[in-house]
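Milestone M4 deliverable, item 7.
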Amino acid sequence: MSLNNKKKAEYHRLVEKYANDLYKFSYRMCGDPEAAEDILQETFYEAWRSLESLKDKNKVKAWLFQILRYRYAHWVRDKVRHSKVNLSLDQIENSLSLPDPDILKSLSNKEILQKALNGLDNRYKEPFLLVFLQNFSCKEAAEHLGVPLGTVLSRIHRARVFLRKSVTKLMDLEQNESL
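Output delivered:
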């Protein structure tokens, strides 16, 4: 097998094994499915370009998540720079049409959770999602983020406190609006 074919095989294995987890993390970080897909594509593009730089094959998951974190940081920076709202008439009409009430009910909790996550500072969101969504241990998350274990533990605690309060508040608001 040629060197290029080995690289392709390794790359396809990475995509198959980690795409789902990376997408979930990306989506929870940005809260936008299209942006999450873009960030994921940029992550895998960067992984393809720098596959030879991966020194420890045992740390491939952390390496991919690190790339994704950088791609997310670039997305946030670009979003702030280009924060113009450009909606077409069709997009406005589509956003005004109400879905089936059963669908609203089933999506309610997911939307509330995502709204709460969107309000969470990235310092707290990243370790929280790495541990609870991606099943990193707290020690692995600390290594991945380059911070002490105690910092990860305190950030996760703060994230949980914030999310608990935020979800409760959002659920109360939703119940009051439905009355």
